[in-house]
Amino acid sequence: xxxxxxxxxxxxxxxxxxxxxxxxxxxxxxxxxxxxxxxxxxxxxxxxxxxxxxxxxxxxxxxxxxxxxxxxxxxxxxxxxxxxxxxxxxxxxxxxxxxxxxxxxxxxxxxxxxxxxxxxxxxxxxxxxxxxxxxxxxxxxxxxxxxxxxxxxxxxxxxxxxxxxxxxxxxxxxxxxxxxxxxxxxxxxxxxxxxxxxxxxxxxxxxxxxxxxxxxxxxxxxxxxxxxxxxxxxxxxxxxxxxxxxxxxxxxxxxxxxxxxxxxxxxxxxxxxxxxxxxxxxxxxxxxxxxxxxxxxxxxxxxxxxxxxxxxxxxxxxxxxxxxxxxxxxxxxxxxxxxxxxxxxxxxxxxxxxxxxxxxxxxxxxxxxxxxxxxxxxxxxxxxxxxxxxxxxxxxxxxxx
Length: 401
Ligand SMILES: Cc1cc2nc3c(=O)[nH]c(=O)nc-3n(C[C@H](O)[C@H](O)[C@H](O)COP(=O)(O)OP(=O)(O)OC[C@H]3O[C@@H](n4cnc5c(N)ncnc54)[C@H](O)[C@@H]3O)c2cc1C
Prior knowledge:
- The chain is an alpha+beta fold.
- Helices cover about 50% and strands about 15% of the residues.
- It is built from 11 helices and 12 strands.
- Strand 1 and strand 2 form a beta hairpin.
- Helix 4 runs antiparallel to helix 5 (about 95-115), helix 5 (about 95-115) packs antiparallel against helix 6 (about 120-130) and helix 9 (about 325-350) runs antiparallel to helix 11.
- The chain is globular, with a radius of gyration of 22 Å.
- The model has no long low-confidence stretch (mean pLDDT about 95).
- It binds flavin-adenine dinucleotide (FAD).
């Protein structure tokens, strides 16, 4: 069974050579998986507060040089390959999807800083390599899927901008030290009105508040950011004024593959639990797996999981190519729907136990549902896929003599 489901299977075997990643597997196995049901966060007095296992985890991540894996060498990191990072995400999806999202948000913030100017890289990347976490703040009450409706205003005053407004649903709220915040610098609606700023925590007039409790992903602190005349120096503008949305959307393509990887890891965990259960649970004098209907469901779950992983690997191969956005959206769409289907089927196969609030399958299923919203909902992925297909079709038509 372990050989069949081992997350370290054939395509990841090269990673066994890499010390930090090896250590990370040990941390996941010895610390994250056993503490999964107890790891929770809440936001109190501006800060994310965790159950006690968290501090030990952060120390273990630092000791294993995990934060450095995301950062280029010249800024104090040991940047590893995109495949390695993808594998970390799958493993985190298996061990604790909420911690996976903490790392996805952190790594997107790093990607933003990497697109900044030299002094921004010099200032922020070494801090991030040392464990100062980042976050990406786009969503607002009136701007969810439609980021062009962002209303958080940044007005220029002397040698700084003053930020006023709120963001909601922000992962790593109260935990991050560096927030990449998409704001409106023109006062009018539209993609060209949006600019990107790096905001340090603490900053005057900046605070974090709790949102109502989530169903799943309990370890992930997700809160409201409040800006009241928060001064941000001109030097913290990333890229050009009015170029913030395009910059952010560029890094989200990568985030989609990582979310898809978390979905695959989570699906493997759910599958493993349900397969073991179906093998040992006997009804009508037979294990559940002896029913052809149930064995067919298991075959479908397993095939869909591997199909999702195939799309993720295809997307990784397309990094930097014109098909990258199409492939990463496709992977995210398929993987997030796959994990929700696998989770729903698993809950039914568990019978009444799958309906108990604190049952592991129920908790994992709540985590699976959360995957729908991250880095764009399924409908948004479909909009991206069709728009990319449309572009490809017209380009091909133009190229035909
Ligand atoms: C756990 C969690 C963590 C998050 N972390 C972050 C974060 O770190 N940073 C951040 O900025 N945001 C974050 N978000 C917010 C997330 O990005 C948004 O929830 C998501 O973009 C959807 O926006 P919305 O919730 O406002 O839904 P809406 O945009 O209001 O959409 C509601 C529904 O309508 C559909 N829909 C909307 N427009 C269309 C259309 N034109 N055609 C068809 N269907 C449409 C959507 O698919 C969805 O099903 C997080 C959310 C969650 C739940």
